[in-house]
Task: structure prediction
Amino acid sequence: MKKIILSISAIATILIGACNSSDSKTKSAKSVQDSTVTTSSAKANEEMAQPTNHDGKKIADAATILARKQVPVLCYHQIRDWTGKDSQSSKDYIIPLKAFKDHVKMLSDSGYHSIQPDQYYNYLAYGDALPEKPVMLTFDDTDYDQFEVGNKELKKYGFKGVYFIMTVSIGRNGRVRYMSKADIKELSDEGNTIGSHTYDHQNVKKLKGDDWVKQIDKPTKVLEDITGKKIDHFAYPFGLWNKEAIPELKKRGFKDAYILSTSRDEKDPLYTIRRIIASGFWSAKTLHNSMKNSFGEKRN
Result:
């Protein structure tokens, strides 16, 4: 009887040991699986933060992008005649109606063709062809005169524009009148590009934590709801940027971002695309010369 009891005890011990071994293997396998899932998830998130390939082509490296000839990108703000209250410095950002019309006519007479940010991105990233003498016409800050005067003038010559919208001012009509949601939707529907320009024109170099939600995430969602399209392009307020801002924009799915006339970043040139302010003091001839001087040579 003792032998039988001992045998049963031995068998039980073996079975318990086997179960424990099985549990250990299961836990170990689960641990490996969880680790694999976490790694895969992190990799997927990293890939989502990067621009996708285009027609099977790989995005060019930074050196190749920097070596491509730059396209003139013009930046306009207010389009109206000066008043006695306008300071000398503010007149750089306020272009009188006649001067603006002269600028656009000069571009047309000189054989320029307006392009959109997607075209410029595909040229820089993948080497896609652009029309002869390309130019990009951009407008910042949502002023209504960009819609009422700017858009109408561009239409006369078959040009399209790019409108970087500051969402805090949408629909406001006080000392300065701003575009409504309907105006922005109409611009988008007509084939112009709508881009993000923060909520209320904050310097991105100062953004921290939840600031990115208020200044980038929520405004971008507002613009996507208005246009029914994904917002892929961003313009830094004041043209100011830092290296820390670039990964934040990548995480949010922006394909590129626009600065002003400072140097591009050597590692991320797609997020530091250059523009120049078309000054209210410039004649059409001065604008043309400035375009050649700023964008005529391959420069960083």
In short: Residues 1-48 form one domain. The two ends are 93 Å apart (CA to CA). The chain has two domains: 1-48, 62-295.
